[in-house]
Every structure is written in structure tokens, then in C-alpha cells.
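lol forgot to send this yesterday, sorry. C-alpha cells for the thing we talked abt
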């Protein structure tokens, strides 16, 4: 033994070998004891093996300690119950349970789709070590994900992926969502710029959304990535898809910028050119009309997807009224408008849901961008949501005026505090149940990662970590398994904390999101599981309150307590806050 340990190879792998031996021959007394090692949810080794689908390890652990089959976690679930929730028949049978024969998976991998043209959408001069701080949305965002061998989406953990290149979107597919006058303006602006990195600003000089010669091409390929991913997921070639694209799109409405009600002069585009996810949803309902009846878009970017909401609302016929005055004469012009994705019953087939930051900033200096998205559900406008949880959300009477006869729109706005627990509760207890009730045939995700606690662009709103993005993705996968055979297409929106490259908060959060898409699972979302999580969190909150001597430094949002971050600094980009002087 001493001889072998003296070799360099064994020295390097000694710790691994010791761990392997311990796993293969665990002490019976340890495994059979009720005090066996467990995680914070009191899940022991058998719970985790059952959840991961590792039949060999399950058989080994059951043989070593049959009593572990009777151990409960904090939710009151045994290992067999965990395997049944995962719908893993082989694991259930390995533990002596009865299960239905396993379903044949529709496909075997996740599609990741991107394109080199995204690097030609320039928003600043070439970035070097000597450069001043670049704008948040720049070419390096995509480089840390896809452009090198150490990029976060090219690790062995994500080996179950197929990579492909996005085609250019057909103009007709863009025009289901955007007005031709806007697309024409964008094309003319880009065509006039020389192909040397010269920039113009879509929202005027000093704005936040820069374009260069190839920007429209990049936006068309970004939308083309989404439509191609939809084609291939619906054809069963992939279980789901992630579109690594830029520029983002969820702030782009039918005519581009969408101004908030309290600041109609605001023309910020929020870095967005074409709304790729909305274009994809409209394309799916139209091109796959024989296969799809209902679609859903969900958005977990820290900023409200005001452009997506405007596009969704435009499918319902409306009347635009404008007053003109000239030469002492007043004239009222009325114009009927509608932008259907397929037919006049589109409103009953579309769902849009978003959980995001909303309200007056922590410094009291402005409204969090884009100034829309107060908590409201277009299917429940007659009654004010009740309960302690809802009373903590950010409401605004003007913002709740959604059309109850239009598509279902569910916004949940979280105030200026870092509170990932309230964020999770908003998804689990409110938005996801509404999504399940909609029964979509396809789920599209506007995947923004700028709610991360280390991303300064959120100025302290929400404050997530990579594990939170993994959690919400896992829940959405379960919803997709329940409603639409696992069909999900996700597209990159925001997320700007790229310092650290592949190990940056942004890169790790995206990898966590894609990692949950890659995991093969048949588990379905259930009210039972949500209720168990809710009860556990309630018990934990009661214990914390009982043991807390003071709460003077805590802020309560949505039933949880989180400490304010004294180091939070405001961000200088003007589009992040909007003036409060117009608020009544």
C-alpha cells in the first residue's frame, strides 16, 4: 500500500479512491441509523439516488440498509415516493415498489442553437484591457457561453446537447409581430452605417440601444434560431432547446419602444431590436396550426417584458383614437387595428406570465425599468388579490388595467429588495398554477439572468443565484412534462455580470438553466409537491420568527425576511430608472 501511495498517480487520486471505497462499503450502522448523513432537506443517500435515477446505486444502498426505505425527508416523502414523483419506474421497482412501465422518451437531447453573426452586432468600440467600461449588452456576453473550449455551455456536464447554426428569419414571420414601418426604419438605419463598427442609437443620441451595420441581420438570425428550435422540438428531434442569441428582444413591441404610462416620452428600447420569443410564439401557432392549439410565454428576466406584453395584447382587435388640431379645427381619427397570429380567437390561446422587479427604487429616485408590470392577472381583475403574500407585492391602479377579454397576462412585480424566497413563491404558488391551467401545447421562455444578486444592473431587485435559475427551470420542465410532452424552447434575454468569464455569475446561471433542460426526466408538476414545499417553508419561517430577537434590519416581502444590502450602488445607465415626477 505504501509503495502504491508513493506513485504520483495514486497520490493525485487518493482522495477519490477513499471516497469510492466508502461508498461501495458503507458502515451498516451509519446507513441504518436515523441520524445518517443528510442534506438541509433531510434527504439521505437513497433519496438522492432515487431522484437522479441511478438504479445501481439504489440497489446497493437498499441492500446495505433496508431501513433507509422508511426514512422521510422534510416534505414527508420516502425514497420510493421521490422516485414515483420522478416517474422513474426502474428505480421504483429496484426499491420493491410497483410502478407503471416506463414511457418511451420522445427524444434524447437538448438543442443549443447560435450563430457567428451575433458577434457582429456591435454596441461599442472593440473591447480591450485599456477600454472604458463597455455597455452591459456587448459581444463578450455570448463569448463566455459559446465562443471557446472553456465556455460554460461546452462543459462535459452538458454533453447531452446538439449544437447547430441559426438561419435567418423570413420577413413575413417578423411582420406577424412587428409593424413594417419599424422593421423598415431599423433596416435603413443599419444599411446607412459603414461596416467598420460605426454606431447609431435606435432611441436617439445618448440612448441605450446601439446598432451597427449587421445589427438587423443579427436580430433576424436570433429570431430564426427560435423558429428553427420550435420546428425541431415539435418534430421530436430534441426534447427541448436553448437559443444562445443576441440582441435580446422582450422590450421590443409592435413598433419598437414601448413607453410606460407615467413617462410617455420615454423611447428606450432596452437593448432590444426584434422580439424573438414573441415571433417564435406567433410562428408556432401559425406554421404548426395542426399540431398546436395553445402557447405560453414565461419571462424570468429582472425587467418586465413590456414589449412581449404589447405584442400579445395586439392580437385582440382594438380602436386607436387620436386627436388632431389645425387651423382652429379639431379632428378625431379612429383606426381599427389588430395583429392576429392566426385567427380571431387568438386571445383564448395565448398566455404571458412574468415575475420581475417593479416599483420605486430603493433610493427613491425613480421607477425601476421599464416602469410597467405591476402585479395583476387579466383573468382576475374584478377582485383585489388577498392574503399577506399578495399585499406585499407592488400594485399600481393604472397598471392593472389589462383587458380581461384579451390573452391571459399575469404579471407579478417584486419591490426593491433582495428576496429570492418571495420570487420562488410567486412562481410556485401563483404563476405556475395559472400556466398549468392554461394547458399550453408549447412553452417558450424569455430567459434573462440579470436578477442575479451580483448583477448590478438590477440595483438590488430580487437577488437570485444560479441555484434559483436551476429551480425555476426544473419546475417549468415539470409543467411541460404535464402539459405538452416536455416541449420547451428557451431564448436568452438579459444577464450582464460576465466578469470571471465561464465562471461568472451570468455564465454559471445560464449553465444551470441549460443543465436542467438537459436532464432527462418524466417528473410532472403537482400541487402535492408545491403544497409540501409551502408547508415546509411555513414551518421554517415560524421557527425563525420564534428565535429572532430583533427584526429592525429586515424587510418583509411575500412572507419571508431578507436583509437589505448596504453595499448596493445605483447604476449609471439612464434607462434603468425612469422619472417619478409624472406619477400621481
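and heres what i got for the seq, position by position
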Amino acid at each position: 500500500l505504501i509503495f502504491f501511495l508513493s506513485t504520483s498517480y495514486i497520490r493525485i487520486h487518493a482522495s477519490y479512491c477513499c471516497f469510492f471505497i466508502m461508498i461501495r462499503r458503507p458502515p451498516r450502522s451509519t446507513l441504518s441509523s436515523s441520524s445518517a448523513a443528510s442534506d438541509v432537506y433531510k434527504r439521505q443517500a437513497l433519496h438522492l439516488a432515487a431522484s437522479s435515477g441511478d438504479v445501481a446505486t439504489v440497489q446497493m444502498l437498499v441492500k446495505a440498509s433496508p431501513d433507509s426505505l422508511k426514512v422521510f425527508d422534510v416534505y414527508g416523502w420516502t425514497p420510493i415516493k421521490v422516485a414515483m414523483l420522478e416517474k422513474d419506474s426502474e428505480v421504483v421497482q429496484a426499491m420493491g415498489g410497483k410502478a407503471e412501465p416506463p414511457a418511451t422518451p420522445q427524444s434524447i437531447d437538448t438543442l443549443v442553437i447560435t450563430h457567428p453573426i451575433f458577434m457582429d452586432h456591435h454596441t461599442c468600440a472593440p473591447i480591450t484591457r485599456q477600454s472604458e467600461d463597455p455597455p452591459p449588452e456587448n459581444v463578450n456576453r455570448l463569448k463566455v457561453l459559446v465562443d471557446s473550449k472553456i465556455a460554460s455551455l461546452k462543459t462535459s456536464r452538458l454533453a447531452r446537447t446538439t449544437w447547430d447554426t441559426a438561419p435567418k428569419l423570413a420577413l413575413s414571420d417578423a411582420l406577424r409581430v412587428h409593424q413594417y414601418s419599424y422593421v423598415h426604419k431599423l433596416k435603413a438605419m443599419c444599411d446607412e452605417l459603414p461596416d467598420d463598427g460605426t454606431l447609431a442609437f435606435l432611441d436617439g443620441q445618448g440612448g441605450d440601444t446601439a446598432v451597427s451595420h449587421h445589427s438587423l441581420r443579427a436580430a433576424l438570425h436570433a429570431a430564426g434560431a427560435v423558429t428553427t428550435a420550435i420546428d425541431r422540438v415539435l418534430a421530436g428531434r430534441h426534447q427541448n432547446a436553448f437559443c444562445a442569441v443576441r440582441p435580446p428582444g422582450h422590450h421590443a413591441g409592435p413598433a419598437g419602444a414601448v413607453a410606460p404610462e407615467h413617462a410617455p416620452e420615454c423611447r428606450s428600447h432596452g437593448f432590444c431590436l426584434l422580439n424573438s420569443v414573441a415571433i417564435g410564439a406567433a410562428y408556432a401557432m401559425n406554421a404548426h396550426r395542426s399540431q398546436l392549439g395553445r402557447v405560453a410565454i414565461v419571462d424570468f428576466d429582472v425587467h418586465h417584458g413590456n414589449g412581449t406584453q404589447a405584442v400579445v395584447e395586439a392580437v385582440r382587435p382594438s380602436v386607436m383614437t387620436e386627436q388632431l388640431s389645425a387651423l382652429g379645427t379639431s379632428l378625431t381619427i379612429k383606426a381599427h387595428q389588430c395583429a392576429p397570429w392566426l385567427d380571431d380567437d387568438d386571445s383564448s390561446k395565448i398566455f404571458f406570465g412574468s415575475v420581475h422587479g417593479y416599483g420605486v427604487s430603493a433610493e427613491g429616485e425613480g421607477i425601476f425599468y421599464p416602469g410597467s408590470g405591476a402585479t395583476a392577472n387579466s383573468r382576475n381583475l374584478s377582485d383585489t388579490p388577498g392574503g399577506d403574500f399578495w399585499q406585499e407585492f407592488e400594485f399600481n391602479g393604472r397598471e392593472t388595467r389589462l383587458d380581461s377579454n384579451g390573452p391571459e397576462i399575469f404579471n407579478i412585480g417584486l419591490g426593491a429588495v433582495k428576496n429570492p424566497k418571495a420570487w420562488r413563491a410567486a412562481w410556485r404558488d401563483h404563476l405556475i398554477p395559472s400556466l398549468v391551467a392554461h394547458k399550453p401545447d408549447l412553452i417558450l421562455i424569455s430567459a434573462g439572468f440579470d436578477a442575479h444578486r451580483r448583477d448590478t444592473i438590477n440595483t438590488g431587485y430580487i437577488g437570485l443565484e444560479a441555484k434559483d435559475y436551476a429551480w425555476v427551470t426544473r419546475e417549468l420542465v415539470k409543467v411541460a412534462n404535464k402539459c405538452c410532452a416536455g416541449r420547451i424552447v428557451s431564448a436568452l434575454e438579459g444577464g450582464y455580470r460576465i466578469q470571471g468569464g465561464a465562471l461568472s455569475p451570468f455564465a454559471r446561471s445560464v449553465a444551470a438553466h441549460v443543465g436542467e433542460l438537459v436532464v432527462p426526466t418524466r417528473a410532472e408538476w403537482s400541487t402535492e409537491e408545491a403544497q409540501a414545499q409551502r408547508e415546509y417553508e411555513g414551518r421554517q419561517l415560524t421557527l425563525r420568527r420564534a428565535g429572532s430577537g430583533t427584526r429592525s434590519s429586515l424587510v418583509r416581502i411575500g412572507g419571508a425576511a431578507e436583509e437589505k444590502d448596504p453595499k448596493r450602488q445605483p447604476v449609471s445607465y439612464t434607462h434603468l430608472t425612469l422619472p417619478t415626477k409624472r406619477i400621481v
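Confidence is low (pLDDT under 50) at residues 1-35, 102-106, 383-392, 550-584. anyway ping me if u want another try
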